[in-house]
Design goal:
- The structure is a single chain.
- Strands 1-28-27-26 form a four-stranded antiparallel β-sheet.
- Strand 18 (363-368) and strand 19 form a beta hairpin.
- It has helices spanning 17-20, 107-113, 127-150, 174-180, 183-186, 495-507, 527-541, 563-588; strands at 190-193, 200-204, 210-215, 219-224, 229-235, 240-245, 251-256, 259-264, 269-277, 279-285, 290-295, 299-304, 309-315, 324-326, 333-336, 341-345, 354-357, 363-368, 374-379, 383-388, 395-400, 407-410, 416-420, 423-427, 443-446, 451-456, 462-467, 470-475.
- It contains eight helices and 28 strands.
- It is found in: Nucleus, Nucleolus.
- Residues 45-82 have a biased composition (Basic residues).
- InterPro entries: BING4_C_dom, WD40/YVTN_repeat-like_dom_sf, WD40_repeat_dom_sf, WD40_rpt, WDR46/Utp7.
């Protein structure tokens, strides 16, 4: 009789894992080997596993429980590296460089660019402030060395005029100079015959590229005098007394018979400023955006052209003002008066900064060089004098002219031009910072009319002369700086570059209150005023709050360290200290003696109020 098999009895028994694996067919690259228990099935070559059982065990370190992963091989002591001393650099060929290191710079050239005053010692201050000052000095020295080294890149050199075999250069006429120079320089000499609307006043732009001139009978014109391209030409039907470019050649200020007018480079009138009436002379301060005007009424007015407001209107109290110039170094306006004095003005002061007695008669013309160290004046006494403006205001040299100079002008390199009647005389000095020598004239030129305006063209060896017969452009070798700063005054800038420069100049505008005689005083600390303010504060408070460090309350818990509670605790301590100081000061003061009562006087009820 068959029995039912038990559940799970027909399930075949599980074979061993090694036995259950099927034998794979041998490949052609495999060798015929018998499989072992560890290698049951043949296959492609595999990485052999290291037998850890056969590896000899290393003794454990009893001091440290962490296993070191660094293999402990017999280490060979390494030889220390020998530091090579920096020797002379050699090229690829092995030859030694004969000019190793940076190029040496002469000390005289470095001093020309250095703006530090080594005679003044650093003040005794905190260590942090002193370290900053020393770092600033080191940086300034590095900048001066770089500027002196980059001076070699200035390819242009100033011109000069020399006579042959001791020939006097004053006898050389303009026709001879035009024949000797190249075609481009010869084209800079020209004459404009404008007798119908003369006499003329003229002005060059800061870049030296554009020329504006105005005639007494209303003729106003502006042109690019290098290419002879006319920008605008109008007739204002009114007397023109003076003309000036503003911060760029796009704006033009014209002092007409009654009021001050502003025109653009197309001849369109933009503004009519009626608060500036009966103007005789104009001067523009480029770094302050100020237009200074001198009037017949004796007022000196400063107009801020960036905002269109009058900054200051000063009464000179010297009658009619028709002699005015500016100092390019410190932007101080200098006025010549009929009593022989020259006054120096700033919009921050209602009184003149200084007064210089120059001549025994009235002053006819005043001019200041580009460095601000020398001033030239001419008066009705036919005297031409050179003054030192570095604090002494003493005359350095003088010369008597046959007719007296009615107009003066300094060039960028220190040449002095004087217009006497219809003759223009030019004197030269030893250099840019030296005063011109008045013994022998450098150049002389006779015009077709009396001189009414003089100005040297920036960055060009050209002198512009406005006279009763028109405009004359003279060639004066060695008058201007041969190299210009392309970021400041670029004669070849485009319209886009001019607009970007204008925005930058407006952002860097200097306030009118900073105009003073010595601009270097702005970077110094006014010790006298500081001590005076400290003394007044000490008298007002009764104690010096800087002697003791301020009270810092300790933090507390449970919400007692809030901002309001900290302020209250600080104020409480300050009030207590203030009471103690006041109490001590009162005790130190001498007590007033009480008035003695007369003998036999009866007591009164009001005695209680007597102190």
């Amino acid at each position: 009789m068959e029995t039912v098999p038990k559940p799970g009895s027909r399930v075949p028994p599980k074979k061993d894992k090694l036995q259950g694996k099927k034998k794979k067919p041998r490949r052609y690259w495999e060798e015929e080997t018998t499989p072992t228990a560890a290698e049951a099935s043949p296959g492609p070559p595999r990485k052999r596993k290291r037998n850890r059982e056969l590896r000899p065990q290393k003794p454990k370190n009893t001091h440290s429980t962490k296993k070191s992963r660094i293999s402990k091989k017999p280490q060979v002591p390494k030889k220390p590296r020998e530091r090579r001393t920096p020797g002379p650099q050699r090229s690829l060929s092995g030859a030694q460089d004969p000019f190793a290191g940076p190029a040496p710079v002469p000390v005289e050239v470095v001093q020309k660019f250095c703006r530090l005053d080594k005679s003044k010692k650093l003040p005794r201050s905190e260590t942090k402030i002193r370290s900053r000052l020393e770092a600033a000095e080191v940086q300034e020295e590095e900048i001066s060395v770089k500027a002196a080294r980059s001076e070699l890149l200035l390819a242009e050199e100033p011109g000069f005029l020399e006579g042959e075999d001791g020939e006097d250069t004053a006898k050389i006429c303009q026709a001879d100079i035009v024949e000797a120079v190249d075609i481009a320089s010869a084209a800079k000499h020209f004459d404009l015959n404008l007798r119908q609307f003369g006499p003329y006043r003229l002005n060059y732009s800061r870049t030296g590229r554009h020329l504006a001139f105005g005639g007494r009978r209303g003729h106003v014109a502006s042109l690019d005098w290098v290419t002879k391209k006319l920008m605008c030409e109008i007739n204002v039907m009114e007397a023109v007394r003076d003309i000036r470019f503003l911060h760029s050649e796009a704006l033009l200020a014209v002092a007409q018979n009654r009021w001050l007018h502003i025109y653009d480079n197309q001849g369109i009138e933009l503004h009519c400023i009626r608060r500036c009436d009966r103007i005789t002379r104009l001067e523009f301060l480029p770094f302050h955006f100020l237009l200074a005007t001198a009037s017949e009424t004796g007022f000196l007015t400063y107009l801020d052209v960036s905002v269109g407001k009058i900054v200051a209107a000063l009464n000179a109290r010297a009658g009619r003002l028709d002699v005015m110039t500016q100092n390019p170094y410190n932007a101080v306006i200098q006025l010549g008066h009929s009593n022989g004095t020259v006054s120096l003005w700033s919009p921050a002061m209602k009184e003149p900064l200084a007064k210089i007695l120059c001549h025994r008669g009235g002053v006819r013309a005043v001019a200041v060089d580009s460095t601000g160290t020398h001033m030239a004046t001419s008066g009705l006494d036919h005297q031409l004098k050179i003054f030192d403006l570095r604090g002494t205001f003493q005359p350095l040299s003088a010369r008597t002219l046959p007719q007296g100079a009615g107009h003066l002008a300094f060039s960028q390199r220190g040449l002095l031009a004087a217009g006497t009647g219809d003759v223009v005389n030019i004197w030269a000095g030893q250099g840019k910072a030296s005063p011109p020598s008045l013994e022998q004239p450098y150049l002389t030129h006779r015009l077709s009319g009396h001189v009414h305006g003089l100005q040297f063209c920036p960055f060009e060896d050209v002198l512009g002369v406005g006279h009763s017969g028109g405009i004359t452009s003279m060639l004066v070798p060695g008058a201007a700086e041969p190299n210009f700063d392309g970021l400041e005054s670029n004669p070849y800038r485009s319209r886009k570059q001019r607009q970007e420069w204008e925005v930058k100049a407006l952002l860097e505008k200097v306030p009118a209150e900073l105009i003073c005689l010595d601009p270097r005083a702005l970077a110094e600390v006014d010790v006298i005023s500081l001590e005076q303010e400290k003394k007044e504060r000490l008298e007002r408070l009764g104690y010096d709050p800087d002697t003791k460090p301020p009270f810092q309350p300790k933090p507390k818990q449970k919400g007692r360290s809030s901002t309001a509670s900290l302020v209250k605790r600080k104020r409480k301590v300050m009030d207590e200290e203030h009471r103690d100081k006041v109490r001590q000061s009162l005790e130190q003061q001498p007590q007033k003696q009480e008035k003695a009562k007369p003998v036999g006087a009866r007591p009164s009820a009001l005695d209680r109020f007597v102190r």
